[in-house]
Amino acid sequence: MKQVANDSLRLVKPMLDAMRSGIPTEIAKYEDIRPIDMDEEIEKYKASFDFQDKIRIQKKIQQQKRQKKEQSLLEEVTLQLLAMDFDPKQVESAVKKVFKILGEDIEKSTVLKEAVKLLIVKDDKKAEIKTKKKKIDTINKNYLGRLMQEARQKKKSVYEYFLDKGIIKPPLDEIWEEDENATLVSHTVS
Questions:
Q1: What angle do CA 74, 76, 79 make, to 5 degrees?
Q2: Single pTM value for the model
């Protein structure tokens, strides 16, 4: 067994001898078996923790400054846009959208220009929708007016003409349908 230990553990034999001797200077020669100096290790990590804390605190301060700057810029731009007589809800959403698109580090004039562009586009779209609705209403009125003219030309009453075209339903049909169902029900019950 000693023969196998001498042959197989030949490389680690000096370390084992140092550990058997118990002499700290001999043990210190080998880094793998050297005792850990806890105070030294704590100081190493403490320095890195302090540095990380400083970085985290600095980032937090910068973020707070950015938020204050963004908030004041948001308020200034909003007030200017409200002075231009835009809708308050649309102003708020437009300014937030500009901040979201362009980021936080932008100038007041840029935010103002982009927000005005968004608001004008929204107003144009609303106006376009209103115009389309008016056109549809006008077309519907004109359609009914034309049908009325056709009825008069054919010397029919407007009511009869609309009935023939299927625009209106005869009111008696609905009543008769209800009465037929009612009689069917009354016959089945009795």
A1: 105
A2: 0.37
